[in-house]
Amino acid sequence: MFKKHKMLGFLAGLIAVVSAYYLIEDVYDDIVDTVAERLSETSASTVETHPSEVSPFSLESPIVAGQITSEYEIEAYFDKALVYIENDKLEQAYALYKEIPPSHEKAQLLSEKIIEGYYALALNRSDKGDFDEAKKWIERGLGLDANNKKLGALKIKIAQEEEIRKLVENYYQQATRQNNRGEYEESRALIQHGLSLNPSHEKLRALSKKVELALKKRQQIENFYQLALAKVNKKAYEAARDKPNSRYI
């Protein structure tokens, strides 16, 4: 009977330990979620505050960036950050990344994945012509890896495209002024320069149609004038030919 009670006591204790373990694990996961949410909210609402400067807990001894040393904690932060990255929540992932010691391999892996995410966002915005937004994500990525070749190349490409955009806009403004003055040939030349740099520029294409129409009308007027002048000259010639020479009368 004693052995039976002893065995029951042992099983009860084991169940209590297992239950406590899973309870602690659930609570810890909730804490990680809360940390990420508070960090991302603080980062989004405070323009001048970098995620590395934000305290994730409102406790007497808050965790500071890179202070986590427990492998269990690091693994939990790493796993949660991966979930954020997969759901394109890069800022939340970045906030968790900053809590892992920079020298830890998990921090290195997260850094690479976050940089890839920043690059994808920058490329997407660049393709849509939103260069300011693209440059923002590029700088975030370069903040993690200043020598990243893909980000560096995209930054150079955007700078070149911005310069082309300025040139095209300048051609458009000049062409518009020439058109308004009735200097259609000069306007056409400027339009062609602009379209050679950006064939799909909508305002230049619209102005080109307008200028070509004006040139066509001008040519029609010129043709009509020349035809009328030719008729007048012909009549004058015929009249002069048929008129008797007064000197011989």
UniProtKB/TrEMBL annotation:
Coiled-coil region(s): none
Highest rank taxon of the organism: Bacteria
Pfam families linked to this entry: TPR_8
Protein name: Tetratricopeptide repeat protein
